Amino acid sequence: MKKMSLNNVAVSVILFVLKIRKNMTFDNVADFIDRTINRFKKEPQPLHIVISDPKGIVVAKILAPYDIKHMYRDPKNMPGLCPVCHCTVEKIPNLDYYTSTDKDIAITYDGFYIVRDRFKLFCDKRGYEGLRFIPLKKSLRHFYFMPEEIFQMDKETTVTMHQGEPCSVCGNYFWTGTGGHNIYSAIRWGEDDDFIQRTEELYTSKYNKSPFVIVGLKTARLMQEYGLKGFYFDNIYYKLEDQGTDKDKLVERSI
Ligand SMILES: [Zn+2]
Which of 27, 93, 159, 202 pairs as cysteine with 209 (C-beta 3.0–4.6 A)? Predict the structure, then answer.
């Protein structure tokens, strides 16, 4: 009985589709199926098991800027890409880029950090090590920005998801992300730590990949006190050992 009604539903759906798509041919159907499959392929695959992040304390902050227009209108002209997979190997800014953004730090859709002179002045005054500021010729108050010091991430606890196979030349995946999971630090930074670093891993897809900028808790406070604005902060955690290690969960994470 149940099977019959399912068949009825299936027939109704087919009739309905045929009704609304009178011109539907075999090619249309094949196209539709192909498009649907591709749509699922392109999106990060959802996890089959819901994984909860281990508990931790907040030890640093991700500097999370808003997006501004692409630095390269045509990615074919973008330097610094792998010749095989066209993923970012090195961020090389277009010095002719123009922006009038009033945000003190922003990120272009293709993953270049842009800061205003106020941000640079703050950093110069504090004397942070290893920060790259490259002036943009047409945007007189703006700079391309990249920290060079690498943030030591707890790679065992932090979820890193990839899509596709690693490139045989550069090792990049088509897409890399955290899937909304927490990032954990390998170092238990405190309230008085003051630094600006970046993740070693580059996130998102293809030529848009870029690292996260991570700052100390004190740095985040100082930025707010200085009046820097136009961005927000996300948390970086340090895993608390007394919560126990769930090995099974860690295995499920490595998809
Ligand atoms: Zn590659």
Answer: 202
Q: For position 52, what pLDDT does the model report?
A: 87
Which of residues 37 and 156 earns the better pLDDT score? 156
User: How far is the centre of ligand 1, averaged over its atoms, from the C-alpha of 255 (Å)?
Assistant: 20
70-100 tens-digit pLDDT? 999 998 889 999 999 999 999 999 999 999 9
Burial of 129 (0-12, 13-18, 19+ CB in 10 A): exposed
For the ranges 35-44, 135-144, 221-230, the lowest mean pLDDT is seen at: 35-44
Cβ-count burial 80-93 (b if 16+ within 10 Å, e if not)? ebbeebbbbbebbb
Out of 2-11, 103-112, 120-129, 213-222, least confident range: 2-11
Ligand 1 is an ion; its neighbours by CB within 5 Å are: 82, 84-85, 167, 169-170
What phi and psi values does residue 235 have, to the nearest 5 degrees? -90, 145
Ligand 1 centroid from CA 38, angstroms = 22
Q: How far is the CA of 169 from the centre of ligand 1 (A)?
A: 5
Distance 197 CA to ligand 1 centre (A): 25
Q: 132 C-alpha vs ligand 1 centroid, how far in Å?
A: 25
Taking the CA atoms of 182, 46, 201 and 134 in sequence, report the sign of the dihedral they define: negative
Q: How far is the CA of 234 from the centre of ligand 1 (A)?
A: 30
- Which residue has 């065992």 as its token pair? 156
DSSP one-letter code for 163: E
Query: 88 CA to middle of ligand 1, Å?
Result: 8
Under 8 Å between Cβ of 244 and 217: no
Could you state, in order of their start, the residue ranges of all structural domains in the chain?
A: 2-42, 56-253
